[in-house]
TrEMBL record:
Protein keywords: Oxidoreductase
GO molecular function annotation: nucleotide binding; oxidoreductase activity
Provenance organism: Pedobacter kyonggii
InterPro entries: Gfo/Idh/MocA-like_OxRdtase_C (IPR004104), Gfo/Idh/MocA-like_OxRdtase_N (IPR000683), Gfo/Idh/MocA_domain (IPR050984), Glc-Fru_OxRdtase_bac (IPR008354), NAD(P)-bd_dom_sf (IPR036291)
Protein family membership: Belongs to the Gfo/Idh/MocA family.
Residues annotated as domain Gfo/Idh/MocA-like oxidoreductase N-terminal: 4-127
Protein name: Gfo/Idh/MocA family oxidoreductase
Pfam families the record matches: GFO_IDH_MocA, GFO_IDH_MocA_C
Domain annotation Gfo/Idh/MocA-like oxidoreductase C-terminal: ranges: 139-337
Domain of life: Bacteria
Amino acid sequence: ERIGYAVVGLGHLALEEVIPALFNCKFSRLAALVSGDNKKMEKVALQYGISPSCCYTYECFDELRDNPDVKVIYIILPNSMHMEFTIRGARAGKHILCEKPMANSSTECRKMITACNKAKVKLMIAYRMHFQPHTLKLKEMVSKNRFGEVRYIEAANGQSSANPEHWRHQAKLAGGGALPDIGIYCLNTIRFILQKEPTEVFAYQYSTPEDPLFKDTEELISWQMKFREGLIASCMAHYKVREIKTLRIHAERGWMFMDRAFAYKGQQLSTSRADGEEEIEEKISLSEPNQFAAEMDHFSQCILTKRAPNTPGEEGLRDQIIMEAIYKSANTGKPVRIKDYKY
Ligand code: NAD
């Protein structure tokens, strides 16, 4: 059995990655479309063989309730719209897969979790790195202390942005700038690999004055997270640099480095250690299944076997709590302790 998905929002990610990946899935398939643009939706429906009766506008979204072919609603809208469509989708009795960042505040995240619990539907946040083989390998090496205890982590996610009209550069729609959009990959992947939560953060942010791209949101955010005494992660997210996506884990006797760490594909993992006098560098090659297909098939299997997803709403909430602490630190110039992650 393949679980039917309704894809909400036909933007870049939906059209370029998610919908094609649905045709690459074992347990998931495209069943319906939701868009504010009827012309675009007609074209996409024709291309992928979706009947007009399975095409919905935002206004008639709630009618998904009466479509038994749809089991999951996958929300791929601007961040500020995630809460509304998650709650409406849950009320329509459908399981929800929601893009990252989960929402624009921890208050919104909590409302989304409550609505899904109340409707007895599953909620998963689309953290594709949890299904990426090189990332899973790093997690395994860290948990087995492959090179001794981890001492320091560096992560960077940078790109260059050009269109000030895009919702990503409007705080109301995006909830922030580089941090919730791309910095969240550094944050979430490090938490996932370590299987630990930071207890304290310290951050700095910057936006070039007069640059229309950053009138409303940050261009650069640079932050440190303390996980325990002697284990710090140092991260940056930047909207005005040559693309970079790297993760390096420094342990007592070696380091592990992932290039293209947060990309859709092409991850490269290498390690270095000293063996006596000798310096040993190793490249680890692994096969690369489509990250989006792996993520959706995980959720579908959770539904088929009645399990909880690996990246539930609580995971999105924790990142949101940490991002709020990061902004608080950047705004006050002081470290911020994080005591309570509870839902
Ligand atoms: P996009 O701008 O390409 O698409 C957004 C869609 O929402 C468009 O079709 C647009 O028409 C629609 N929309 C509805 N109301 C809108 C409004 N008021 N303003 C602007 N657009 C509106 O964006 P995207 O890159 O596809 O991102 C969508 C979501 O997916 C975001 O939450 C983003 O963070 C997430 N995303 C995740 C990944 C990933 O790798 N998991 C990658 C890119 C984006």
